[in-house]
């Protein structure tokens, strides 16, 4: 007869394995439900800026700050160096073109003028002496030519007479040959004198032309030196306002040194710096507006400077119609620069989140307003008020637009 054994009560070894697996599953479930402190950030909702995505017209413009400047500035550099002896006009004064602003003194320049005048006088004396010499040789040449022609004609007659007499056998052959030889010699001498006279005339013309050219060059050089003397009077290059003047009486000014500038006040321009983010979109002839005392003034972008400094590049704008009556150089204005046409788009108000995310992602608040989840987005253009949303958000969704620096690496925000 079999005896039924009574089961022992209590935990068996295999039960411990089941318990460990269950605890592990509970821990994993808790992690999935509640996440970790590194991925979740808790904050008070009132401390955040929350805005709604909306559909509307995106006005493609940027707001820039610009300062008024003269339409052009003409710099004054010293044509000649020298010591300042007199200062006739002070900074800020209005000047007319040609007004003397400074007077300089240059002893070395005066010595150069004396040397140039002395060389010119010597050259003039040489020219006069050469002309007299050539004139004298020309007269002597004409006299020699006349005498040679006279002798040849006389010998020719004598030869012709003796030739007739010799044919009639009235004179000897020797006497006839002597007259013939004398006549032939006179013809050769006349030819030589003519060649010499022609050469003398050609030499005279060439030499006198060269001397005249040298004399003209020296006179021109002297006149240029006189102009350099006039340049010791520093004159205003145009009508306008003397912006600054870096010169005092007794100061030595070097040739080419910048000593001042004239601000041309016939019109004004506005100089502005723009963030390099827009450098590919900012082009010449873009339109802009300036608001002053409730009135709008139209401007045109005249020049874009290619150089970028400290993350900004410079532009010049000019008024196309009227300009403010009280405009003054140095005034600062807010300008609305139109980059393109308006278009329908999803609009997201600007906020500090862009500095933290670069516009790559944003925290989207759920329908209950209790949590916000990180979501990737794509931003297009932007103006002073809105970003244009291309992907990642829908009309009416709420997003956190304030700065994210305090959120760390959180992917989820719990709003209290």
Poorly predicted regions: 34-38
How many strands, what sense, and barrel or not for the largest sheet?
A: 6 strands, mixed
Count of distinct strands: 22
Q: What is the string of helix and strand elements? A: HEEEEEEEHHEEEEEEEEEHEEEEEE
| Order of strands across the main sheet | 1-22-18-17-21-2
Number of helices: 4
Q: SS-based structural class?
A: alpha+beta
Query: Gyration radius, to the nearest Å?
Result: 52 Å
Work out the helicity level.
25-40%
Give average pLDDT, whole number.
84
Shape: elongated
Structure description:
By secondary structure, the protein is of the alpha+beta class. It has helices spanning 13-34, 107-167, 173-231, 353-357, and strands at 40-43, 50-52, 54-58, 61-77, 82-87, 94-95, 100-105, 233-235, 240-245, 252-253, 258-275, 287-292, 295-309, 312-319, 332-338, 343-349, 361-365, 371-376, 378-382, 386-391, 398-400, 412-415. The strands form four sheets. It has a six-stranded mixed beta sheet with strand order 1-22-18-17-21-2, with no helix packed on it. A hairpin with a 3-residue loop joins strand 19 (378-382) and strand 20. Helix 2 (107-167) runs antiparallel to helix 3 (173-231).
